[in-house]
Amino acid sequence: MSDMKIAIMGAAGRMGRTLVAAVHNAEGCSVAGASEPAGSPFVGQDAGELADVGTIGIPVIDDPLELFTQIDGIIDFTTPAATCDFAALAAQARIVHIIGTTGCTDDDETRLKAAARHATIIKAGNMSLGVNLLTALTRRVAAALGEDFDIEVLEMHHRHKVDAPSGTALMLGEAAAEGRQISLKDKSVRSRDGHTGAREEGTIGFATLRGGSVIGEHSVIFAGPDERIEITHKAENRQIFANGAIKAALWGRDRKPGYYSMLDVLGLTD
């Protein structure tokens, strides 16, 4: 089978450059396109040069419409609005769309699921193997422990991250809620300030830290009477997210249209 032709959306960003380099160096796929929003100073530059892998003959463009007819899939760590637009184009072209974008609303999710009727969409709040193992463990531990164990999700990221809690933190919270068979929407506590009163039993708390250049750290804490269980993942290089995204793209190449997660890719669904 020929290499999978992949385009990188947001190719000039920190994650985009990592993705360009990773796809360029990976077996089974190649960089076939790169895009940035209109007005970006990087439009017209070679994507490989931006990613420090040398000239690869792929210029960064600002109108990816035609590109979608020439590729097998896209990897997209951009913004919710852009991701929804890309999903519509992926549906028209019937290609694979790997989504690492965070901060999507319920309306965004509805649009993405509609696009998944014709596109193979794989979306995860975090693409790393370790975090997805953490997610699977969180669901199982939450199911095993009673409500006398309080659940808290703690995350820290670099100062430039714009959404909170992180997509990974929310993914972990959803896993805990699934384990407890409750609705995260009804039971999550996103902030505490002032005289909050005693902690409500059965809730799932979130704490967000921002600072420095931290790539990503996540912990799920199960605090019970006289004992505490903590499960932690620390990302030390963005390469782990790129590796996961490539694995997802190659997995999705032969899949039917649908809305998948990294747990599907890794065979971690129950």
Description:
The chain is elongated and about 60 Å long. The chain is of the alpha/beta class and about 270 residues long. It is built from nine helices and twelve strands. α1 packs across α8. α4 links the parallel β5 and β6. The chain is about 35% helix and about 25% strand. The relative contact order is 0.16. The strands form two sheets. Strands 3-2-1-4-5-6-12 form a seven-stranded parallel sheet, sandwiched between helices. The protein has a five-stranded mixed sheet with strand order 8-9-7-10-11.
Q: Would you list the SSEs in sequence order as H and E?
A: EHEHEEHEHEHEHHEEEEHEH
How much is the radius of gyration in Å? 19 Å
Give the distance, in angstroms, between the N- and C-terminal Cα atoms: 31 Å
Which consecutive residue ranges, at least 5 long each, have pLDDT under 50?
A: none
Give the count of helical stretches: 9
Read across the widest sheet, the strand sequence of neighbours is 3-2-1-4-5-6-12
- Shape annotation: elongated
Give the helix level as a range of percent. 25-40%
Largest sheet: 7 strands, parallel
How much beta, percentage-wise? 15-25%
Give the overall average pLDDT: 95
